[in-house]
What does this fold into?
Amino acid sequence: MLTCLEKSVQLTCAGISRRQCLKLGALGLGGLTLPDLLRARAAAGQPASRKSVIMICQFGGPSHLDTYDPKPDAPADIRGEFKSIQTRVPELRICDLMPKQVAIADKFTILKKLQMTGQDHYLPSEIMTGYLFNHISGKGVLRPAFGSVVSRTRGSGNLPAYVSLRGGEHEDPQYLGNAHEPFVPKGMGLQNLALSKEVSLERFGVRRELLKTFDTLRRDVEVRGQLEGMDAFTAQAFDLVTSGQARDAFDLAKEPEPVRQKYGKATQYLMARRLAEAGVPVITLDADSGGWDTHTDNFSKLRTMLPRVDHGLSTLITDLFERGLERDVLVVMWGEFGRSPKVSSDAGRDHWPEANYALFSGGGMPMGQVIGATDARGGRPTSRPYGPQNVLATIYRFLGVDPSMTFPDHSGRPVHLLDDREPIQELS
It folds into this structure.
């Protein structure tokens, strides 16, 4: 939102204050700005692609045994309280709390032989970067979030390259720079896409003319390292504000009422579909705000959470296929680890990195598969497992990003995106 220029300020020789120049150039301070986003995309020097990834994050670690890897023949203290149901994919049974996915199982693939590295949450760095880093202790390997990498390497037209519907927490660009932070569509983020009520289009046009005077100012102005100066990208940001394209992409009211009713309360899923359809390359969202850290009361918590995820995920996947977007949009859902095979005395399951799952849908990849298996207890994969870097390598390949490329870190040392750059072969 662009606010009016105050009259009672000291003016520069161009007739406007230095502070107001910063306002115009930034379209709002305190976060990633539209000019930053535009500048970052142009710096990549690559044409825009229509391919998008929607990552559904199950932070806290969902139980694989109580979702996509049930063990109906195991003892009760491993099997748990839920029953399982057969899907239309012969190799796949899922929890009976997710009935909507039964009929669309041919539209997704489950990776069961997934192992993680960390024994703790590590504030889910592994699924965002492929590496463990504990933001509390400061220990581990710092790498940029995969969405920041995509922002750095490819474009998205007139929209942000990386949108976090979950607030952007722990989705850090690290040494790629602040210009590649995720755009968070709330608060000032959304306000920056609209004109202030006090500013008419005519007055807004006058302000655009003021851009011609910016050459009289220093080009290296910075505010806390956030601003990189006033340039043509600010002018392009003016175009975005006046055209309304970016603002409309975040407006769920633009969706027909029947579609909104179909999604119901699963508004993050609907927003993700709108953004992917509009051409945003990376969108992240939370599968459930309740969290998946079920050390206690695992089953009572999942009785509430799983039906919500079942509805949102199945509606999203069905919608993407009905719109013919299944080749251009890849949906990935996973968490930082699975849960222990043995149920605790508190009816909970503890952290278990030895076995985890990831769900893939679309992306033009082979669907209706079950990749790998775990043993009878659900404790470990029965064949050579994949790791989180293999999942991210698959995502990078789909988006046209070479995971072997390097970027200089804070010390100037070239660092590969991933050490294990093998994608999941069954999804080729």
In short: The chain is about 30% helix and 15% strand. The first helix runs from residue 18 to 26.
